[in-house]
Amino acid sequence: MKKLYTLITCTLLSAGLTFTSCEDQLDQVNPNKQTEDTFWRNEADFELALTSCYTPLKNALGGGYYGTRGVMLRICRADEVEFRNDISEIFQAMNFTNTTSNSLTQGMFYQFYNALYRTNSIIQKLEEKKGEFSEDFINKVKGECLFIRGFYLFQLGKEFKDAPLRMTASQEPSTFPLAKSSQADIWGQAITDLTEAGKLLPVKNDVIGKPTKGAAYATIGKILVYQEKFDEAIDILEPLTKSPYTYKLVNDFSWNFDEAHENNEESIFELLIEQVGGTDIWGNGELANSTQTNTRPREYAAPEVSGWYEANPTQQMMNIFWKEKDKDGNVDIRARESVAWNYPGCMYYLKPFQEVFAADKLNTYWILKYQNSKTMEAESDPPMSSINERAIRYADVILLLAESYLRGSSKKNLDTAIGYLNDIRRRANLNDYSGPKTDEGVFADLEHQRAIEFFVEGERFYDLRRWGLLEERLKTCNEVRYKQFMTGQTGNTNRYYYYPIPAKELETNDLCTPNEGW
């Protein structure tokens, strides 16, 4: 059973993380309302402020990276699922017709800066008041805060490439105009933050949901792989496979996406999704009546089980799932735990697939990851899921190491790369890799394993983009989407590789310029 901790409310947040001013000396101050001067008094205030930094990641409708719409923005552009035309902003992003005014990509952009403001505020206040607290407490707060900031900066550069790098918390209008920094500089700052965080954070955190040393180093390693600094990535990631770390692949793949097995040995960092707070499922997560749950399961469930059927797996993704049978002649267990379809023995929301669907829908495919299909006969109303979002899994570390040994220079080693691939294959009850012992052969299996392992976890688009395979996979998946994607070609890049700097930022920040092609 997960441990719960109370999230900071909007009232406390505004007291601790914004400034107040009063031009009229006759204005009366509410003695019960905390202000900038009265909030940062003790350890509890700093703990509340830290808790507030996670909320922008989980904001359901405003672009929180692991919130309902944020997940959609991360999975809609690849070849693994297709959305129906219900949520216009997601449909636009999927079909590469989105603009600088897309409200959800704008929301994602400002959630990043919302969080950066909060982390910067904490770091600044901690420095101001460091004489009032113990060194242990200062290091604890600083380590957590730097992890959060570095984690956000990684995602900012991943989604928008070049963007303003705001490293101070200020409400002084003169500081608002800020030119973009390069993706390399944003990720460089992320690595700096995460490296310092790794020195300060514990190997195992006693508080569930808080970051650890392993979470910091796993994120650094991923950034290095994105930068194609594979030898450096090995140096950072490989220690995570040894003592004092105790990560391992759990035997049952489905344990990574249910509520009963949260924070297991494979989980390196999770976002807590909890039945605390209020009942407003459409709130921003910070008002008193905002729930801290999300609607993810109901978004993707079929209408036959009270779902909103927003997206379904593509035929191309299903073909990837079906490509290789396991040692017992069955379809890969990861496919069967990720998608429901009409195969012998398939259960969907506690009933046989063929009993749930009419004859004309027996050829349909339905997402299972993060669903309640094993515990409910239908999704609940109101939809308030408490399944934690697994932000970093040990399986990702293993496959990033396989890629690094495959694509590195001085540390390049096909046997070691294959060994890490086999770790993933064995958990899925597959035979060890037996394909060509060449760069091309091993890479083909690496792509295959990542596609299946991280289906709808928000990895596929970014993998294809960095490998230079996005155009090719889109072309074989959906000709219409591919042709529209290619209209974004600009020189040696494509504007649809990244979400655009929002129009609102360009209007209010006169030093910020559009990204290439926009």
Automatic annotation (TrEMBL):
InterPro entries in the record: SusD-like_N (IPR033985), SusD_RagB_dom (IPR012944), TPR-like_helical_dom_sf (IPR011990)
Keyword Membrane: yes
Protein's cellular compartments: Cell outer membrane
Boundaries of every RagB/SusD domain copy: 266-518
GO cellular component assignments: cell outer membrane
Organism: Phocaeicola plebeius
Identification of the protein by name: RagB/SusD family nutrient uptake outer membrane protein
Keyword field: Cell outer membrane, Membrane, Signal
SusD-like N-terminal domain segment(s): 26-223
Family: Belongs to the SusD family.
Gene3D superfamilies: 1.25.40.390
